[in-house]
Amino acid sequence: MSKKFDNWNEVKKTTETIGNIPQFKAREIYHAKIGENIGFEQSGKGDEFVRPVLVLKRLTKEIFFGIPLSTTPRAGSFFYNFEFLAGIQSSALLVQTKLFSSKRLLNKIGMIKKEDFENLRKKLNDLMFDGDFTPPSESAGRPEGNCESIISKNEINSNLEDKKS
Of 2.30.30.110, 2.130.10.10, 2.30.40.10, 3.30.505.50, which CATH number belongs to 5-164? Predict the structure, then answer.
């Protein structure tokens, strides 16, 4: 599949100039211009590179932590499945959580239920901070996210001291 980086760059230039941004808050779901991205990073669709994004946490009126959504059902600890539009399953791509500019937001399309939001936050917390996860299936062809080794803080400090010498 051919990537459309040049097209995204033009959309990004006009998106940067947007002055009127929506008032948004946690739990809301917006169409957002998330762009054409590299590797396994989630990209938007269509001419404007749009995808639904769940506002996880508003930091300021200009930035927020968000989670891209998909209508493709996904299993495993990298994902949280829920319904916010009647009869349509959504999958929050927890491993794609990132900082977004509010300039990317287009229109509000819904809101996740409070119970689902709390369950999603717990699952995201478990994924990010407890280290226990179920990797995607081998057939998915995606990286599992495992490290080959863990470097202790003492080893890092020792290496830095060696470089100074």
Answer: 2.30.30.110
